[in-house]
Structure to design on (412 residues):
């Protein structure tokens, strides 16, 4: 491995000089800036204050047509404080105002307990109509209390003023604090492995296809070539991820005041130092483990177009870890999570999730990492042997398992 540094620096410079990488990174940075700045841009275009209103409705422009004699404008006005509300005399004018975007949402109140929502388009997850449910419910409750000889308005305000205080004594981990951060970091390592794993496999296969591999073998040993390529590709992926993550956090912090309160509460990116350390150690080791696997598969391919089919099994292994991590976030101490957090081909992702969301003994973490590190070292050794075999094998790749068997036998 005397030429490892030379190979590593050469491969690293070659990758960093690629225009495609720089252009793709630049485009992703611009997209991230636009996405994270979306609430600010929307507020500038609409001229609305992102803060909520004082009434039961969120801030916005509303239209109301009361199509009943049982309820009046005076009955609803107290519940629409701080809102820009237009009152209509008929349904046609209300529809026209919505269609012409003069108002955001319209309501036709047909009785004290029923209404019709009027909108131009309704997006997935839209809750516009449910706010009127609260208004009519609150109004009807006050009316019933008044009928019973009670001061409904006073009672409603007193009930609303009730505040219950509570504290939690958590002996282990509080998953609510780190849930969003865990979710994001799992997606990050998954995308990193998928993109750069396939990238290094294609890169190695292309070298073999155009006979570049044969020239490289004459100037350096196979160990330096394989390890240097994997380390260089891995570092480029990490650098790109750092740039994108930094852009996300920068955009988020600059536009934080314009994000909805519910969004900020959910994406409370709280992660302790030990959780972050476990993530870095496990995810980076697993990242290089799969880079070696992808590179080994690429070395067996004589044609670049064979790479996607050949890497299907490896891709499925990564996806299994990904889906186990995401689908068991709510049951971090389940049997499936316990087992897969120890197995080396899944622990690189699952152990971080389990450790962040539940209490895990130190010996389990150590055992899991020893197995992961040992598997990575073993896979690096195997990939070097496969790379050496690949320089001499240009036959058909009908059965990848037979090729791996031949590669290992030829180097034994």
């Amino acid at each position: 491995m005397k030429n490892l540094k030379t190979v590593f620096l050469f491969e690293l410079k070659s990758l960093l000089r690629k225009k495609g990488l720089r252009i793709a990174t630049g485009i992703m940075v611009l997209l991230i800036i636009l996405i994270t700045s979306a609430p600010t841009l929307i507020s500038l275009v609409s001229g609305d204050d992102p803060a909520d209103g004082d009434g039961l409705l969120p801030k916005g422009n509303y239209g109301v047509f009361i199509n009943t004699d049982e309820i009046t404008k005076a009955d609803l006005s107290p519940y629409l404080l701080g809102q820009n509300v237009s009152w209509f005399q008929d349904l046609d004018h209300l529809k026209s105002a919505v269609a012409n975007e003069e108002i955001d949402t319209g309501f036709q109140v047909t009785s004290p307990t029923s209404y019709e929502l009027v909108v131009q388009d309704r997006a997935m997850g839209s809750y516009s109509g449910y706010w009127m449910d609260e208004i009519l419910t609150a109004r009807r409750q006050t009316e019933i209390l008044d009928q019973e000889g009670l001061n409904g308005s006073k009672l409603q305000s007193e009930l609303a003023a009730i505040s219950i205080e509570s504290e939690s004594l958590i002996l282990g981990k509080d998953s609510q604090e780190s849930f969003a951060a865990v979710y994001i970091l799992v997606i990050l390592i998954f995308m990193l492995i998928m993109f750069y794993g396939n990238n290094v496999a294609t890169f190695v296969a292309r070298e073999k296809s155009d006979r570049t591999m044969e020239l490289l073998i004459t100037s350096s040993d196979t160990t330096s070539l394989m390890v240097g390529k994997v380390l260089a590709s891995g570092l480029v992926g990490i650098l790109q991820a750092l740039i994108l993550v930094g852009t996300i956090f920068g955009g988020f912090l600059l536009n934080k005041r314009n994000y909805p309160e519910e969004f900020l509460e959910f994406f409370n990116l709280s992660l302790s130092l030990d959780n972050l350390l476990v993530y870095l150690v496990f995810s980076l080791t697993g990242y290089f483990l799969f880079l070696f696997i992808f590179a080994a598969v690429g070395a067996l391919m004589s044609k670049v177009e064979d790479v996607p089919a050949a890497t299907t099994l490896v891709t499925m292994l990564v996806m299994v870890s990904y889906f186990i991590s995401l689908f068991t976030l709510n049951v971090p101490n389940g049997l499936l999570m316990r087992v897969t957090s120890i197995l080396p081909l899944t622990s690189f992702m699952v152990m971080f999730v389990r450790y962040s969301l539940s209490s895990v003994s130190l010996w389990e973490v150590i055992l899991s990492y020893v197995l992961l590190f040992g598997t990575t070292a073993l896979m690096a050794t195997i990939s070097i042997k496969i790379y050496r075999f690949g320089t001499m094998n240009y036959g058909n790749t009908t059965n990848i398992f037979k090729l791996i068997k031949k590669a290992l036998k030829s180097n034994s």
